[in-house]
Every structure is written in structure tokens, then in C-alpha cells.
Write a structure and sequence with these properties.
By secondary structure, the protein is α/β, with parallel strands linked by helices. Helix 2 packs across helix 5, helix 9 packs across helix 10 and helix 10 crosses helix 13. The radius of gyration is 23 Å and the shape is globular. Strands 3, 4, 7, 8, 9, 12, 13, 14, 15, 16 and 17 form an eleven-stranded mixed β-sheet that branches. A two-stranded antiparallel ribbon has the order 1-2. It contains 13 helices and 17 strands.
Length: 385
């Protein structure tokens, strides 16, 4: 009897000593959504309001099924997370910690994923409804992105109806602000839609015998080391709510809070999609600009679908209905958590790691734009399917 007890004690001790990522055989992977790797608040009903350096993770399996969102469940998930993040008792009171009547609010969405992996309209509508409850007039709400064609493919038609929230694009819409730009030595090739681009959408070769083709503005390569900011951002809104998606990107690794807001707010952005150190720093420097840094009040990660490879366009072979919504003011914490989850999923499915392509997250941390999620408070809210 004594020997059996001794053996049991030694076995239990060895299990705890040599298997820190498991509990006596039950695998608990560091960084899984229910563990996170950061400082976790396990009882959201009793937890204090989340600080600026923390975020709320809502896991709502019932909000998405077979890549189709359930609008009522999306609304419940987001509003539950927002109230928890704010520490208030109602949705209007939660929004009143961020906005006040008379504010012009811009909802910057991500629409490169088409109708499936772009920012979900049901999430946008939930936020619009909440802002209205907080006293924001519909005419003072602008839902926007850069490219009108991407917006329309995602279900957002740029328009400006009376007495309703506005839907706008920068290209073919409000345009670029010629007075506000980001300069970096790296030059980029201009295309149609960039502020300094001269010519038509497609090159037109002059008729034979007229101006030489190489002398036509459309035929000459146009380059610039300036990136101009959207007028929507610089002139038309006072505060910005950023709504990226949890998807990959071949140039920057993760098209999350940081890269989508920075590169979606400027033209001539393609020069920063090469994954180099200078491009990572450029993304951080763009986000440091007052026009973004002082106006952005909240990041809402639409992780209802995780596109862990093949993004930003929808690829059903590398996507699944995750049911995540992340809410907070620290884009570094949110993006670093999302990147870890995507890397785990890629590892499990034998997809090569993103690695240094997403080094803009590290650069943003170095520039003081936020903390890694392991250094911040993550409050988790689990909703029933």
C-alpha cells in the first residue's frame, strides 16, 4: 500500500514537471483561444473593465455556420463583448465612453475578401445601431474603404442616402487629401486610383503617326515616394472604428488591425507589401501619424471566419468558421493573438509558417503602438452555440 502511494505521488510529480503544456495527459496547447498565453480573466461576470492595453475575446460558435453569419447572434456577441470591455451595464452606456452626440464616426471596413471573408455587414449594422443609441446621428456615420469595386463585391454599395448612415469609398469617391501624406524613400509604381497617377484606367496606345507611344502619359511608368491619406480620414470623420478581418495576406502575412488600417488609409501602398524591415517600419510610422493615432478609438477584429492561408480573398480550403470577435484599443495585442492562432492552424494543416512577413506587428510594438498579447489582459467571453 505504501509503495503504491509513493509510486502515485512520483508519477503525478513527474507529469507536472515535464509536461507544462498538459495536465496529466489532457493536452492544453499554449495560445489556444481558451488559454491565450496572456493574463486571462476566467470569470467575465466578476472581472473589472478591460484597460486600454487589454482586449475582450468573444467566442460565439453560434454566430457563424458554414461561412454564413447569424445576424442576431453576431449582434449579441459583439454587444456582450463591448459591455464587458467598457465595464458599463448597457450598450448605449458602453458607446458613450467612446463617442458623444455631434461626433462624426468613420467605420473603416475591410472588403478585399469578397462576400464571405470581408467585414460582415451584420457586424457593421450592430455597431451602427449602437452608435445611434448613444446619440450619434445616422448622417454622421460613414462606413468606408478604399476601393469601390471591392466594397460592392462585399455587399457595400457606396452611396449617400438622406437620413441614413453613409457608405463611401476613397477611390471614385471622396478622394485623397493632397495636403496630408506619408513620405518614405522607397518609391512605388503608381496605378489608376493613386492621387498622382496621370492617365486612364488602361493604357491607350496613340494611333500610328501621332505622338509616340513611349511619350504618352499612360505609357510612361509613373513612380512616387509619397502616399496620400484618404479625405474621409482627414476631413470627414472625427473618430475611427477599425473593423479588419482575421485573414492572411501574401505581402504582410496578416491583414489585421495594423496593416489594414495603415495601408487601407493611403494610396501608393503596394510598395509596402514586400515583407521587408523598412516596410514593416513604414506601417508603424503611418499609424503614428496624428490623423490616425488621434482619431482611432476602437479596433474590432471580425474573426467570425479565420482565413489562415490563401487570403485575403476567400479560399474554402484554408478557412473555417471560428466565431471570434475581438474588441479593444490595442491593435498589437489583438494582431499578435490572431497571428499565433493562424500560425497554429497552419502548422496543424502542414502550411508553411508566415514568419517574418508579419514583422510589422513587432515594429508596431517597438514604436509604442501597443503590447504583445502575452503582456496584456485578455478577457474571454464564451457564448453558447
Amino acid at each position: 500500500m505504501h509503495r503504491n502511494l509513493t509510486f502515485l505521488f512520483i508519477s503525478t510529480w513527474l507529469c507536472l514537471l515535464f509536461a507544462p503544456s498538459s495536465i496529466c495527459g489532457q493536452s492544453v496547447r499554449p495560445g489556444d483561444f481558451h488559454v491565450g498565453g496572456g493574463k486571462i480573466e476566467q470569470d467575465p461576470e466578476k472581472s473589472p473593465p478591460v484597460t486600454k492595453t487589454g482586449f475582450v475575446l468573444v467566442h460565439a460558435p453560434g454566430a457563424i455556420s458554414r461561412f454564413k453569419a447569424n445576424p442576431s447572434q453576431v449582434a449579441h456577441a459583439f454587444n456582450t463583448g463591448l459591455v464587458k470591455w467598457s465595464g458599463k451595464s448597457s450598450v448605449p452606456d458602453a458607446w458613450k465612453t467612446l463617442v458623444k452626440p455631434g461626433d462624426r464616426i468613420g467605420l473603416r471596413i475591410s472588403t478585399t475578401g469578397g462576400s464571405i471573408t470581408s467585414t460582415h455587414p451584420s457586424l457593421v449594422q450592430t455597431i451602427v445601431d449602437g452608435l445611434k443609441q448613444a446619440g450619434i446621428q445616422p448622417k454622421d456615420i460613414i462606413v468606408w474603404d478604399k476601393n469601390p469595386h471591392h466594397m460592392m463585391s462585399a455587399g457595400y454599395v457606396p452611396m449617400q442616402p438622406d437620413n441614413q448612415w453613409q457608405c463611401k469609398s476613397t477611390v471614385e469617391g471622396s478622394g485623397w487629401d493632397p495636403e496630408v501624406f506619408y513620405f518614405q524613400e522607397t518609391v512605388g509604381r503608381l496605378i489608376w486610383g493613386d492621387h498622382e497617377f496621370k492617365g486612364t484606367v488602361l493604357p491607350i496606345i496613340p494611333p500610328e503617326g501621332s505622338v509616340a507611344a513611349e511619350d504618352a502619359p499612360e505609357a510612361r511608368e509613373q513612380i512616387s515616394n509619397r502616399s496620400y491619406f484618404s479625405k474621409i480620414l482627414t476631413q470627414e470623420v472625427d473618430k475611427v472604428i477599425n473593423l479588419p478581418t482575421m485573414t492572411t495576406h501574401p505581402g504582410v502575412g496578416l491583414q489585421g488591425c495594423l496593416s489594414s488600417l495603415a495601408l487601407g488609409s493611403i494610396d501608393n501602398h503596394r510598395r509596402f507589401l514586400d515583407g521587408t524591415e523598412s516596410s514593416a517600419q513604414a506601417i508603424a510610422e503611418i499609424l503614428q501619424k496624428e490623423v490616425i493615432a488621434e482619431k482611432t478609438i476602437l479596433h474590432v477584429m471580425d474573426g467570425l471566419i479565420m482565413q489562415y492561408a490563401g487570403g485575403p480573398a476567400f479560399d474554402p480550403n484554408h478557412a473555417y468558421s471560428a466565431g471570434f470577435i475581438l474588441i479593444g484599443q490595442d491593435p498589437v495585442a489583438i494582431d499578435s493573438w490572431c497571428l499565433q492562432q493562424i500560425e497554429y492552424r497552419r502548422e496543424d494543416t502542414s502550411v508553411v509558417a508566415i514568419g517574418k512577413k508579419a514583422d510589422h506587428i513587432k515594429a508596431a510594438k517597438a514604436y509604442g503602438l501597443g503590447q504583445h498579447f502575452q503582456e496584456s489582459l485578455m478577457t474571454e467571453v464564451k457564448l453558447a452555440p
